[in-house]
Batch of 2 targets.
Target 1
Amino acid sequence: MAPRVIVVTSGKGGVGKTTATANIATALAGLGKKVVAIDGDVGLRNLDVIMGLENRIVYTLVDAIDGICRLNQALIRDKRIENLYMIPTAQSKTKDAVTSDQMVKVCDELRSDFDYILIDSPAGIESGFRNAAAGADEALVVTTPEVSAVRDADRIIGLLESMEKSPIRLIVNRIRPHMVRKGDMLGVADVLDILAIDLVGMVPDDETVVTSSNKGEPLTLSGNSIAARAFKNIAARIAGEDVPFMNLDVPSGGGLFGFFKRAFGNGR
Amino acid sequence: MGIFSKFSSIFGSAGEHTRDTSPGQLARDRLTVVLMHDRADISPGMMENMKHDIIEVIKKYVDIDEAEIDLALENEEDSVALVANIPIMTVLRRRRQGR
């Protein structure tokens, strides 16, 4: 299989890019793929703490680019699961510390060693995002079912299209099924209709996401909560498996059993 | 309309709100308008200016009801159209030049 470089982005901040990156990377490793997650948010380092690898950092992406170390010295191996690696970024530098060309070079160098290279992009549409996305073939756009987040997602999709990323696929995060049911919140159907791109997964709002980030253990490492399952499904779809979507929009059949009972495949 | 929409339109009516006034529908409607403007790169302010200019041009030829003019971006199938509804009061008789 040809290695795939995927940027995880959103436009708006705080919608769950880093959480998605950590969980999907971990889940892909769980599927036996060799994965590296790169923190592309220079100056606002976060992926290391979400993945619980903050104490293992010696060198960063910026050090490797500056020639202070070799690229593989900046690679941190996750000891909890085979085949998972992370490259942290610098906390004390600014967005300009890494250029687009340098990012392309880093990604290309990693292609020979990994099946999947996931890049956690910073929020926004400026140079930080452009640099993070520069080396990627594909994109995952994370949004929440809110007007502001969907609007920014639309903008970022336009930019990704102009950068010729393909496929560009959508993750709708933090869905609250009971609110969608009551008509109090945008549903996945609404978001998909409006943005008109392919869905790769939807993740319900789940408290285990908070506890897992507190502990620095991605949910997909061992969890079996609804969000953990959602992220595992996303990873499987990225890897090419045909996994039916959970349907979070329809009325509850009650409890977890009803939740899975409602899952259906729509052939996407 | 995707399959999700069909499902939500079947089950959505069971909600507590009527479809037009629910916060979810309101979000959808607002997003649709915002994105039409974003994608066409026309701000609400520009729309106002354009409306004003169009009125000035049309007024030279016909008597129009300025208060009733409706100019908006509308979704038509896969494209966005600028749709104007301009009620005409009376068509002015044009003076013939040079006679």
Target 2
Amino acid sequence: MTSVLLSVTDLCAGYGPIRALRGLTFQVAERETVAIVGANGAGKTTLMRALSGIIPLSDGEASFLGRNIRGTSSHHLARAGMLHVPEGRGTLQTMSVEDNLRLAWEIRPTAVTFGEALEKAYGRFPRLRERRAQAAGNLSGGEQQMLAVARALVNRPRLLLLDEPSMGLSPRMTGEVFLSLAELRDDGVAILLVEQNVRRALQLAQRALVLSHGVFAASGPSDELSRDPAIVASYLGQSHDAPPDNKRHIANDPRR
Amino acid sequence: MLVGLLINGLVSGALYALVAVGFTLVIGVLDKLNFAHPEVLMIGGFVAVVASGLPPYYAFIAAFATGGLLGLVVEFAAFRRFTDADAKITAGLASMAVGLVLTDLTQKVFGTESVSLPIGGGWLSRRFQIAGVEFLNVQIVIVLATAILTGGLHVLLQRTRVGRQIRAVAESPVSASLLGVNVLRVSQAVFFVSSALAAEAGLLLALRSGAASSDIGLTFGLKALAIMAIGGLGDLRGAMLGGLVIGVLEAFMFHLGLGRLSELTVWLAMIVTLMVRPRGLFSSGTHGLEQRA
């Protein structure tokens, strides 16, 4: 029997009088990967921000490892093992690659030493080793996303909240990032993923929830959802992964 | 003669720099202007008075601790509650009020006249010569102390866990807290360090002039504010360099017989610098904490 990491009941949240989220209920268990998919503006980012305590819940309850999210500040949630990689990746641009990783390790020192954790992260992303002394702001978008994932590798969160990891990346880089996310998942890190690239998200996650206008429109195991005609029509009709030829040049990132 | 002037200027400049670095640290990390900062400098001078019977390093430790604790008080009284973007002005005013309270309390205890230090005639005011240039021991002490304190700040920011957290908050409080950084603790650390540096500067200033006075905040301390603006808001290099340059400029202006007018040096320099470079000499304009100290 697996224990519940994140439990959300009738969650409502939004900015000011606008209720972007209207009564969401779901759970994420240990070692589970859950995707929340939906169109732009469906409230996906708002949900992530509410879960990690950046914006307050206007109604409902949410708890992480038994801690009520309402009364817990962001940094306490992070120290308890909830690592939120926000949209735009949240890497610290003026700090070096290695300082970014060290910061993530120091906040939540795991059994392994920083050196070992660092070796593991660099082993997975050799490009980061090459750029270890550079400011994160000088990395390409793909490298920054690698850094965000590498940070999760050294931080070893109980639950990784990922907001649009594919944003701004070439299809090839997206593939690489999702590959490393799959490794994290197979290592036993629970992942709650918000993603516009529905095909990728369904491939990674065991289970998905479809968010539409602030409520869940559908939910179920990923393989079922990816066969659901309504889902296929709304979200999988146009593949994000097989770009038409006129987009090919994006894949040829000059830094690669 | 010229070398002597230069040394005098650099010694003043080092003290300006110490205060300006503290000002700029709070701006660079927290984007807040602490008007109580000059009064913490002033209190540092009275630490010299109180600790005058003790071995000098006690006075240095006492000034560091007193300044740091006052920094925590200022953070709590004037800044903690005002976190909204539009509450910055309120926070600035509150810190000014705290500063005025500090001045009044000091005057209540020590009077409004400046209090001379009994150690004025001791080891610190002895002279020695190197290659025909005359130095005072106190000048060496000031330069060394400034180098140690700013060097220590550099190491703190670049090499320690707290320093990494401070730099993270300087860049983005939200990103930092998502990584588990307690922004309030970082904020307190920044106020502690910044104010401790100001109090040390006050102590050194009192040792140099042989007296502590309660109006030093408004004269010497406010100049550091202008120096920070010259260097660029939030830029540690700018504050250091600005302090040294202004110190030397002022010494030469004084030497040219401009007397009280030389007090205007820093203000004129600020106006001219900001007319040419509105963001100061170094700042990127984001109030970001620049890396070198």
